[in-house]
Specification:
The complex is a heterodimer of chains A (113) and B (115). The model of chain A has no long low-confidence stretch (mean pLDDT 94). In chain A, strands 2, 5, 6, 10, 11 and 12 form a six-stranded mixed β-sheet that branches. A four-stranded antiparallel β-sheet of chain A has the order 3-9-8-7, with no helix packed on it. In chain A, a hairpin with a 5-residue loop joins strand 7 and strand 8. Chain A starts with a strand and ends with a strand. Chain A is an all-beta fold and 113 residues long. With 115 residues, chain B is mainly β. Chain B has a single domain, classed as Immunoglobulins (Immunoglobulin-like). Chain B is built from no helices and eleven strands. In chain B, strands 2, 4, 5, 6, 9, 10 and 11 form a seven-stranded mixed β-sheet that branches. The chains are: A mainly beta (113), B mainly beta (115). Chains A and B meet through strand 5, strand 6 and strand 11 of A and strand 4, strand 5, strand 9 and strand 10 of B.
Chain lengths: 113, 115
């Protein structure tokens, strides 16, 4: 069965500092991995994805994520956090043979000025 | 261009009533998905359409839930005999098919409250 774990309910970081939001997954076969961000009263916005190729993928708003097959992880990173990055972040996975996404429970990122 | 739209944005109903939630996907997207997001949780898959047919309805919780997409564009999620436990935000997403690893684009959701 497919699953996603986001071990941190909340991550706090000071503006200008680097941030990491953790995600680990379980899937049979090759994974397709995604990060989405959700602002209050708005839908999920796609940030980035890993399908194949380079383990470091870059996405919107300066975010990037690193795929680590041996650790089954796909952590979201940003070199310098902004207050406007404060939101709820979801990691999601699907396998090659299905189209439904399995989401983690989300991590609330709080960036302090 | 226009994104995925969902109506209504909010729906309040009484236990036992019937509700319909509508989703308008991005033009040209043949794949359409419904998810349900309860408070403090990530979205949970309900059903997936390719064109007019349901390709995977394994996430529908019981037979009170049903979805249609008669012309391969707009979709309606129907819930009969609503229960308080059905209260959640219902999200719709669409994507292209035939593109490996294609991302899904989400609408703003319909917040359903069952009193």
């Amino acid at each position: 069965a497919q699953s996603v774990a986001q071990p941190e309910d909340q991550v706090n970081v000071a503006e200008g500092n680097p941030l990491t939001v953790k995600c680990t997954y379980s899937v049979s076969g090759n994974p397709y991995l995604f990060w989405y961000v959700q602002y209050p009263n708005r839908g999920l916005q796609f940030l980035l994805k890993y399908i194949t190729g380079d383990n470091l993928v870059k996405g919107s708003y300066g975010f990037e994520a690193e795929f680590n097959k041996s650790q089954t992880s796909f952590h979201l990173k940003k070199p310098s956090a902004l207050v406007s990055d404060s939101a709820l972040y979801f990691c999601a996975v699907r396998s090659e043979d299905t189209d439904k996404l399995i989401f983690g429970t989300g991590t609330r990122l709080q960036v302090f000025p | 261009g226009a994104g995925v739209s969902q109506t209504p944005s909010n729906k309040v109903t009484e236990k036992g009533k019937y509700v319909e939630l509508r989703c308008d996907p991005i033009s040209g997207h043949t794949a359409l998905y419904w998810y349900r997001q309860s408070l403090g949780q990530g979205p949970e898959f309900l059903i997936y359409f390719q064109g007019t047919g349901a390709a995977d309805d394994s996430g529908l919780p019981n037979d009170r839930f049903f979805a249609v997409r008669p012309e391969g564009s707009v979709s309606t999620l129907k819930i009969q005999r609503t229960e308080r436990g059905d209260s959640a935000v219902y999200l719709c997403a669409s994507s292209l098919i035939g593109v490996r690893g294609n991302e899904q684009f989400f609408g703003p959701g319909t917040r359903l409250t069952v009193l």
